[in-house]
Amino acid sequence: MSTAILASDSIGRAEQFSTRVAFFIAGFGGAVWAALVPFAKTRAGLEEGGLGLLLLAFGIGSIIAMPLAGALAGKYGCRRVLIASSLMVCVALPALATVSSAPLLAASLFILGAGVGSVDCVINIQAVIVERAAGKALMSGFHGLFSVGGIAGAAGCAGILSFGASPVTVSLIAAVFTAAMLIWAAPHFLGFGGGSSGPAFALPHGVVLFIGILCFIVFLTEGAILDWSAVFLTFTRGADPAHAGFGYAAFATTMTIGRLSGDAIVRRVNRVTIILVGGLLAASGLLVATLVPSVTAAMIGFALVGAGCSNIVPVLYSAIGKQTLMPESVAVPAVTTLGYAGILLGPAAIGFVAHVASLPTAFLIISVFLIGVAASGRFLKT
């Protein structure tokens, strides 16, 4: 920690810019893979079940890599880990567009997950340090660039593919673009991590565990909308399957807008209030979607969920920078891993509840959890 404190005087706008670029890279890399999934499925001759198992490789790679990335950042600095992780993304994307066997696809996807997960983890460590050095709210804007990267990756790949380009061409363009962004930002990545004292790995405890649980719930909510909103609109509300994707689009749009405008809001409103209002807004969105029998109401509800969730996680990461129980190089990976677990395990749990009861019931249970998040903010030092 002392190294970070001594170097904090040298942190300025260039480091803030590099932080935004790395968040963009993390969002961009995952979105490019999403556009390549149908081609990989066809090339490998996978059925839905086999594809589902293949997709687990991304999450496994991310969850395994995050604690290791945090430990390496604490020892060698954020810069080295961010460069190595971003290069893993650059290598994995072309491989995912060319290999045809399931084992090789799984290995490539594992590398991509490890790269994206490591970038996501370490850049949050850097973000905590940069925000603290700046003495003002920056975290929402940082996370907003992750969303912008996701939109750019998905829209850019779709646009290039629509012009008849092959998946290999798209992946190479994405890899070159990622490398160019990395070269632009790398000189201003932090040469130190979130503290070198203490254990390299540690289970979250105390306030860090509390923050991790809140992140788990919010990420679970995001995973629920990502994986189940189209199913809900189609089979519960009777929407045209061709239009069902607009539910997630409404969620993603309000979340991106909320994060990009979030720093200005956080500077004017107490962070506890952000968590309170955000949690209640997200819970009310799910209540509207499930209790009002209308496709339009469901769309509005999902948009409210995105707006409500948008700034909760950034505020929680800011809270990590204010706690002294665990160094950032250990606390951030622990919280990020719990969050990813919510995205990976949550949708499966929702499917189980939907099978036993109904999908609206599962959404209602999540709304109760979100009310709990809203009530929990007052216990944090934010």
Automatic annotation (TrEMBL):
<feature type="transmembrane region" description="Helical">
    <location>
        <begin position="52"/>
        <end position="74"/>
    </location>
</feature>
<feature type="domain" description="Major facilitator superfamily (MFS) profile">
    <location>
        <begin position="207"/>
        <end position="382"/>
    </location>
</feature>
<dbReference type="GO" id="GO:0022857">
    <property type="term" value="F:transmembrane transporter activity"/>
</dbReference>
<feature type="transmembrane region" description="Helical">
    <location>
        <begin position="362"/>
        <end position="380"/>
    </location>
</feature>
<feature type="transmembrane region" description="Helical">
    <location>
        <begin position="142"/>
        <end position="164"/>
    </location>
</feature>
<feature type="transmembrane region" description="Helical">
    <location>
        <begin position="81"/>
        <end position="99"/>
    </location>
</feature>
<dbReference type="Pfam" id="PF07690">
    <property type="entry name" value="MFS_1"/>
</dbReference>
<feature type="transmembrane region" description="Helical">
    <location>
        <begin position="105"/>
        <end position="130"/>
    </location>
</feature>
<feature type="transmembrane region" description="Helical">
    <location>
        <begin position="202"/>
        <end position="221"/>
    </location>
</feature>
<feature type="transmembrane region" description="Helical">
    <location>
        <begin position="21"/>
        <end position="40"/>
    </location>
</feature>
<dbReference type="InterPro" id="IPR011701">
    <property type="entry name" value="MFS"/>
</dbReference>
<dbReference type="InterPro" id="IPR036259">
    <property type="entry name" value="MFS_trans_sf"/>
</dbReference>
<feature type="transmembrane region" description="Helical">
    <location>
        <begin position="241"/>
        <end position="260"/>
    </location>
</feature>
<keyword id="KW-0472">Membrane</keyword>
<dbReference type="InterPro" id="IPR020846">
    <property type="entry name" value="MFS_dom"/>
</dbReference>
<keyword id="KW-0812">Transmembrane</keyword>
<feature type="transmembrane region" description="Helical">
    <location>
        <begin position="272"/>
        <end position="292"/>
    </location>
</feature>
<protein>
    <submittedName>
        <fullName>MFS transporter</fullName>
    </submittedName>
</protein>
<dbReference type="InterPro" id="IPR051788">
    <property type="entry name" value="MFS_Transporter"/>
</dbReference>
<feature type="transmembrane region" description="Helical">
    <location>
        <begin position="332"/>
        <end position="356"/>
    </location>
</feature>
<feature type="transmembrane region" description="Helical">
    <location>
        <begin position="298"/>
        <end position="320"/>
    </location>
</feature>
<dbReference type="GO" id="GO:0016020">
    <property type="term" value="C:membrane"/>
</dbReference>
<feature type="transmembrane region" description="Helical">
    <location>
        <begin position="170"/>
        <end position="190"/>
    </location>
</feature>
<keyword id="KW-1133">Transmembrane helix</keyword>
